[in-house]
Design a protein that fits this description.
Chain lengths: ~110, ~110
């Protein structure tokens, strides 16, 4: 596709269940980012990939969060297990290089009840 | 350390009034500065970058290296400018991540 694609667009799950969010970046983009945005708040950085490696994962809030990227392309963010406080919109972004424009996906709205 | 500071969480101005969204940065090298915008129910998108020196939707931003600022300005606010605005910094010289500020919500009152 032409842009960054995230799936699912919406996810409602129960506390304690595992969650997996997917990001398909723009083809050829080496840098990939995950952010989350709680209601009415700003962007919260989670993790940054350069290729398949993650030089900065300082924003992952706890051991329940993990992320990987394979083939320099698709990335998945996992929350194992999920908690109500994880409820937010999770955004993925990619860029050709780390110092060029970042293109954002439409986000995944996660609700943990 | 690289840092982007947006001191105002919320800015409310009347339609037709001038707008200035503040952004200060901390970086020792040559930064690339951006402004991103998020309209209601839309994804974040690039508004402008300092290197292109362009005006987008009436907005301009000048990089002031002496004051380490990159404030976003518009002389006459319009209701459709209501959105969340993020200032961001990237490095020319290293493969480090882009840094976003905490964002400023701009609300234009009719």
């Amino acid at each position: 596709g032409a842009g960054v694609s995230q799936s699912p667009s919406n996810k409602v799950t129960e506390k304690g269940k595992d969650v997996e969010l997917r990001c398909d970046p723009i083809s050829g983009h080496t840098a990939l980012y995950w952010y989350r945005q709680s209601l009415g708040q700003g962007l919260e950085f989670l993790i940054y990939f350069q290729g398949n490696s993650a030089p900065d994962k300082s924003g992952l809030p706890s051991d329940r969060f993990s992320a990987e990227r394979t083939g320099g392309s698709v990335s998945t963010l996992k929350i194992q297990p999920s908690e109500p406080r994880d409820s937010a919109v999770y955004f993925c972004a990619s860029s050709f290089a780390s110092n060029t424009e970042a293109f954002f996906g439409q986000g995944t709205r996660l609700t943990v009840v | 350390a690289q840092r982007v500071t947006q001191p105002e969480k919320l800015l409310s101005v009347f339609k037709g009034a001038p707008v200035e969204l503040k952004c200060n940065y901390s970086y020792s090298g040559s930064p690339e500065l951006f402004w991103y915008v998020q309209y209601s129910r839309q994804r974040l998108q690039l508004l402008l970058r300092h290197i292109s020196r362009e005006s987008i939707k009436g907005f301009t931003a000048d990089l002031n290296k002496g004051e380490t600022s990159f404030h976003l300005k518009k002389p006459f606010a319009q209701e459709e400018d209501s959105a969340m605005y993020y200032c961001a910094l990237a490095s020319y010289s290293s493969a480090s991540k882009i840094i976003f500020g905490s964002g400023t919500r701009l609300s234009i009152r009719p």
